[in-house]
Amino acid sequence: TQLLEQSPQFLSIQEGENLTVYCNSSSVFSSLQWYRQEPGEGPVLLVTVVTGGEVKKLKRLTFQFGDARKDSSLHITAAQPGDTGLYLCAGFFYNNDMRFGAGTRLTVKP
Amino acid sequence: DAGVIQSPRHEVTEMGQEVTLRCKPISGHDYLFWYRQTMMRGLELLIYFNNNVPIDDSGMPEDRFSAKMPNASFSTLKIQPSEPRDSAVYFCASRGLYTDTQYFGPGTRLTVL
After folding, report:
1. Contact at 8 Å (CB) between B93 and B29?
2. Helix-strand-coil percent breakdown of chain B, rounded to 5?
3. N or C: which end of chain B has fewer CB within 10 A?
4. With contact defined as beta carbons under 8 Å apart, do B88 and B110 qualify?
5. Which of B42, B100, B106 is the closest to A41 by Cβ?
6. For residue B8, what are the β-bridge partners?
């Protein structure tokens, strides 16, 4: 059974600070997705990474896929209160299994 | 498009009662997924359909849970009988054939007393 570990579980920062959240597995991902979920809503896809070493940017968010395709990170620059939410990674494995991480709950204080 | 529609948004029931959750996927999407989210276990895939056919139900916790998709625009997840440990938010999601983007509904918050 492939497991995804996300860290940290909780993160509370001030507006303007930078942060990084991580998603790791002992197995190789075929691809990986990052989602953001706001209270009372379903997750919304932010990005999909497929190639080892790949870096994608979405405004102030930078997503990186590890060279070995076993890990990924999400970096937010100059966080804003609107970034508050639950960030989930979803890993796809070569046996067609797909799992979500437990999530990082981010709070950005004004 | 209205997105994925789920009903009801909230359901409170007593242990032993039958619960039916409903989902209308985005028109034209070939895949439909049912998930359950709890603080303890996170977001778990229960079952998914392709062209109305159940493909993988290995995530369905036990025989009390069943899901159907009688047509391309409607799916149900039924719990009978319900138990307090079934309390969670249940999400439905859909996606098209040539895309990796799943679109989630707003969820149904189920509370079993």
Report:
1. no
2. 5, 55, 40
3. N
4. yes
5. B106
6. none
Low-confidence ranges of chain B (pLDDT < 70): 1
Say yes or no for a CB contact (<8 Å) between B4 and A98: no
DSSP letter, residue A83: G
Closest CA to A52 of A69, A64, A74: A69
Name which of A27-41, A85-99, B19-33, B69-83 the model is least confident about: A85-99
Centroid of chain to Cα B33: 7
Q: Across-strand partners of A91? A: A32, A99
Which residues, in sequence order, are CB contacts of B12 under 8 Å at separation 6+? B111, B113
Asked if B100 lies within 8 A of A48 by C-beta distance, the reply is yes
Q: Which tokens sit at A71?
A: 């890990």
CA A65, A70, A76, A80 torsion: positive or negative? positive
Token digits of residue B10: 């909230």
List the beta bridge partners of residue B21: B77
Query: Given the structure tokens 């494995």, which residue do they identify?
Result: A93
